[in-house]
Amino acid sequence: MRAEIKTAKSAGFCFGVDRAVKLVYQALDEGKRVATLGPIVHNESVVGDLNAKGARIVSDPAELAPGETLIIRAHGVPQAVYQQLSEQGNPVIDATCPFVARIHKIVMEQTAAGRHVFIAGDPKHPEVQGIVGHCRGNCTVFRDADELKCLIDRSLPERLAIVAQTTYNKLLWGECIKLLPSDHPDLQVFDTVCSATAARQSDADLLSRASDLMIIAGGRHSSNTVKLYDVCSRNCPSWLIETAEELQQHADEIRQKAAEIAAKAGSGHILKIGITAGASTPAHIIKEVQTNMSGIFDTDTTIPENEDFAAAFEEELDKTFPKKIRKGDRVKGIVASIGGNNEVMVDVGAKQTGYITLSELTSDASKKPSDLVKVGDELELVVIQVNDAEGTVQLSKRRVDEMIGFDNILKAYEAGEVLEGTVISVVKGGLVADSNGVHVFIPASQSGLGRGADLNVLLKQPIRFVIIDTNEQRRRAVGSIRQVQKAERDAAKAKFWETAKVGDVYTGEVKSLTSYGAFVDLGGIDGMVHVSELSWARIHQPSDVVEVGDTLEVYIKALNPETGRISLGHRRPEDNPWVKFTNEYQVGDVVDATVVSVTSFGAFARITDGIDGLIHISQLSNERVSNVKDVVNVGDVVTVKITAIDSEKKRISLSMRAATDDGAAEDEEAEADEVVYSDEAPAEDAAE
Ligand code: F3S
Predict the structure, then answer these.
(1) Which protein residue's CA is at the shortest distance from atom 6 of ligand 1?
(2) Which residue of 213, 267, 323, 564 has the fewest CB atoms within a 10 Å radius of its CB?
(3) Residue identifier of the C-alpha nearest atom 1 of ligand 1
(4) Pocket flag, ligand 1, residue 197 (CB < 6 Å)
(5) What's the pTM value of the predicted model, to 2 decimals?
(6) What's the total number of domains in the chain?
């Protein structure tokens, strides 16, 4: 029997599967511990080979060992899986086919815009489950035109988008689209059937129409292989086989069918045999099938290479993603996921998968990607490397931030604008601050700290500064905190002198102390509280009652705009202890007082805070006292009678004798003697 064997041009691995399989082999070659989330391809021989080389299969990221690299296969995964991997911290190699990733992007955008998404496909297929996992719970999956019709009859959502699984049958997709009402007010249709699938199906359809019998090589679990079998078996007797050995098992059956066909066709008929293969069938299996078929029919066959298909596929890919990416291009990208290896995957609308490493995301090593970006964010990026072999493009956000940041620095320099930043390091001679992603040098003399001060106090602190010099070529800028502080002080002073008046109350920090007073910051300008104004009690120096850094409530006692002197008060009349005392006590009251000092003529005893009275030696006891310390000592609490109050001299006389029954008779003879309360203080000096 004469036979002619033809192989479909588009048989075998598609771009997406080919890329995914290569990425696994590459990761293994690099010595990585690798697992794939499900079999990387529906082909046992490929999976078996990868397994033998060390790539294990997991069904859930939770099964990964720490540090084990997970390879996401071409089908893609739901958004939640990226989240899980990010939390686990496992490195990820994302081999999601760019066509599938495009569907993820579409459904994310559509659901974000408030549209419900219809997905044509098999709800149990991992690709469809991955798409569903990007729809924010706002989608419905239908298998075929009948199921779509049921949905239409039930009433369609007011805002609707429709996509298809990449391997969905092109003819069925056409039938479904025809069913959709043309008057729907808001319907977006996205034809997402992969052209590789369509090309393979159409090639298989054409070849099977022109053939007497067809062999379809591929996995029985591969949906696109099964679809090829469906297409071919409609046109001629077809066999689906997984391996070349399996073909041998069907050899007799195939010969018999061929003989029947040849007999029907009559003598001289040349039997036409077609071969095609699913997207997950490696080239070596196709070659083995071709060779075995030649053996079965004892005929030669030329084995076409798939180079034409590869070129055609590239063309299709370019049509789907017309955007061309070159090194150095500035592009916009949408964050698609954040990987556990601190890489951010970005959709730049091109056929390549974009990614940003952490060092190209930020110059701040303390940050994680999740601190800086979230899924769906649009980023300004620059292309730093294109790898067509891997289908990846490396991007940098940090470099764009620096470019934009330096432009802003130049504008701020011209406008004299105050910038904000954070001190990121202390270097020889000054500080380095990060502002808008640009590093600005601040000399120590411009740090706003005193000469010789420890610059480390500003490390990691937010600062405000102005640019005082730039070098555009080298992208260098020099800043000054000191100038900002001076300008702010000048502005505060001007405002103070415009509005301040005697009696105004301020709460300020004590900036410095002298022997005669305390200088208080009133908000950019200092005033002085004289030592006599600090306390009603007798004090020797300001440090007896306040320290630098204390907060003090003060009021303006006097202002002199010409000399710039501001005199402040702190004591309040209502707190005057003498007034409080005379309001509460009177002559004749018996009180407990604490001896605070002892002299040769008597003892001073404290009645209330700041108010002391004298117990004359003659009033210590009914007995004659020759030495005061024989009766009282500092710290003793004694019961005394107030025998006299001299409001003019602010003196109080006390008597222990008069406080006792025995001494009471002699009370009236007791004379008011010395001293006691005093608020005298040195003359005031006004603040400088
Ligand atoms: Fe991608 Fe199409 Fe293959 S979607 S995985 S190139 S079938």
Answers:
(1) 16
(2) 267
(3) 16
(4) yes
(5) 0.47
(6) 5
**What is the spatial order of strands in the sheet that 271-277 belongs to?**
3-7, 271-277, 213-217, 238-241
Q: Does the active-site annotation cover 127?
A: yes
Cβ neighbours of 21 (radius 10 Å): 25
Tell me the pairing of strands 34-37 and 56-58: parallel
Alpha carbon distances (Å) from 70 to 25, 349, 374, 464: 13, 25, 21, 45
What's the 304 CA to ligand 1 centre distance in angstroms?
21
107: Cβ–Cβ under 8 A, 6 or more apart, which residues? 117, 119, 131, 134, 135, 139, 161, 163
pLDDT mean by block of 10 residues, the chain; 688 residues:
83 83 90 93 84 94 92 92 85 87 89 95 95 95 95 92 90 90 89 80 90 91 86 94 88 90 84 89 86 78 47 56 78 76 78 83 82 85 82 87 88 94 92 88 94 92 95 89 92 89 93 94 90 86 93 93 91 85 93 95 92 94 92 96 92 92 50 42 33
Q: How many whole angstroms separate alpha carbon 74 and alpha carbon 470?
A: 49
Nearest alpha carbon, ligand 1 atom 2:
194
Residue 592 shares a structural domain with residue 519: no
Same domain, 603 and 663: yes
Q: Which H helix or E strand runs over 343?
A: none
Looking only at the bridges linking them, the beta strands covering 271-277 and 602-608 are unpaired
Among 529, 545, 548, smallest CA distance to 684 is for 529
Whether 121 and 129 have beta carbons less than 8 Å apart is answered as no
Query: Same domain for 683 and 592?
Result: yes
Q: What is the pLDDT of residue 305?
A: 42
Amino acid code (one letter) for 560: N
Token pair listed for 524: 């950019």
Is residue 371 one of the residues assigned to a domain?
yes
Q: Do residues 409 and 463 both lie within one domain? A: yes
Is residue 122 located within the same domain as residue 138? yes
